[in-house]
Amino acid sequence: MTPFDYEFIRKLLKARSGLVLSADKHYLVESRLLPVARKAGLFNLTGLVAKLKGPDSEALIVEAVEAMTTNESLFFRDKTPFDHFSQTVLPALMTARAASKRIRIWCAAASTGQEPYTLAICLKEMGRDLRGWRIDMLATDLSTEVLEKAKSGIYSQFEVQRGLPVLMLIKYFSQVGEMWQIAPEIRSMVTYRPLNLLHDFANLGTFDIVFCRNVLIYFDQETKIGVLDRLAGVTASDGYLVLGGAETVIGLSEKFKPVADKRGLYAPNDVSAPAAADDTVVKLTVPPARVAAAGGTR
Prior knowledge:
Elements: H1 3-17, H2 26-39, H3 45-53, H4 58-68, H5 80-96, E1 102-107, H6 114-125, E2 134-141, H7 144-152, E3 154-156, H8 157-161, H9 166-172, E4 173-176, E5 179-182, H10 184-187, E6 191-194, E7 207-211, H11 221-234, E8 235-242, E9 256-258, E10 265-268, H12 288-293
Parallel strand pairs: 1-2, 1-7, 2-6, 7-8
Antiparallel strand pairs: 3-5, 4-5, 8-10, 9-10
């Protein structure tokens, strides 16, 4: 791969996904894009770059960008955000939404589904406390390939062993050959759709909780600011934003403020932000009987 090839790929990734590659990531590009090149009948990355520059290359560009995006995820990743979700965020919102009994959640950059399914399990574990409530959960990602895996809810033994308590595995999964599939009742609690965080997403409506973890770390400062500004536009004025442990709004956005003593948890600063949820996203009701019967991310 020539320096010119590498620079082209860097610019392509930045423009299409916001991902910023440093100058020393040649090995990463080669390991992830050589399989894409070979699948396309090409012998090396120079041939792939030439193809990417040519006409009718959109499908190949999408495949290359998806191959380069990081899709690392596991159930109950870092644990703390899910403790905040169950112990702080949900109790506060259940008080604030007592009249409507509706909460909307968005998992941005949901990858292969471990994060939204972890949230769904947390909701199930609340049992009777959520009887009569409607929980709408949207999960999005740039990669359509990982979204298809997320929809299937099928994971390897290695994947379910990473962060998922054994009791949760027994309770919410069934074995399919050498794989494990999460229960239909959990899968049905999440709506998946492709979405690029670099684009406008105001049409999604307003959310009470937004999980956007371990995404901003891959962006440059300008891109981070833009994403945070757009997230502020879809977060309810009394809602919450959850970022990764290595991410912050400090120095990037004044539209969110840290929640005291809750690492990674933020609340909107702008009291004029919209507080009412709309019906843009497909609605998902958590039936009282199903919730009562119950005993992952980026």
